[in-house]
Request: fold
Amino acid sequence: MENMRGSEVISCERCPALVASRSMIVNGDGKLNAEMLFVGEGPGREEDINGKPFVGRSGSVLDKSLQKNGIERKDIRITNCVRCRPPENRNPSKEELYNCKNHLHTEIQLVNPSLVIALGRVPSEHLLQRKVKVTEEAGKIELVNIAGVDRFVLICIHPAATLYNPNQKMIFESAISKAVEWIESKRTEEK
Ligand code: URA
Reply:
């Protein structure tokens, strides 16, 4: 029913509605041993066309914010909770999230990041397994067991939410800076 190679899903037919709406499967992208793994909700139109996560407007918001902190896209890993575009960009259903969970967990295990950054409510609730109010909790770091391993997860606003709301942009920027500072202080500790 599905076929994986490393962290890449080569074929999967688990979600009939997504199989019908996708052009292709959008796998994670970037450094395979990145310290930071960003997790979005699911591919949008641009991602579905290009086969890469966060290549549209949300991706450029994220890239600009990372650049302000001295980080390039090639330094990080980025993926999504579901790898096929939901029709009309609706949120993935509980069942679709569940169907794609194993792919996400496999990628987290292979990349083994120091910090997972959840971009938006859907990935935050999916990873933390609880209700999350992202605007209030952005910047919080929680230790959570993911597939048997304790992982640090930082809650962040989705980059798309910042496009029309300067207040959310500030919260987003500060959560991204917090992620970078956290990684830098961890590196210093380990020296
Ligand atoms: N939004 C997401 O959550 N993921 C993408 O890949 C693009 C936009």
Q: What stands out?
A: Residues 166-190 form the longest helix (25 residues). The radius of gyration is 16 Å. The CA atoms of residues 99 and 111 lie 20 Å apart. The mean pLDDT is 96.
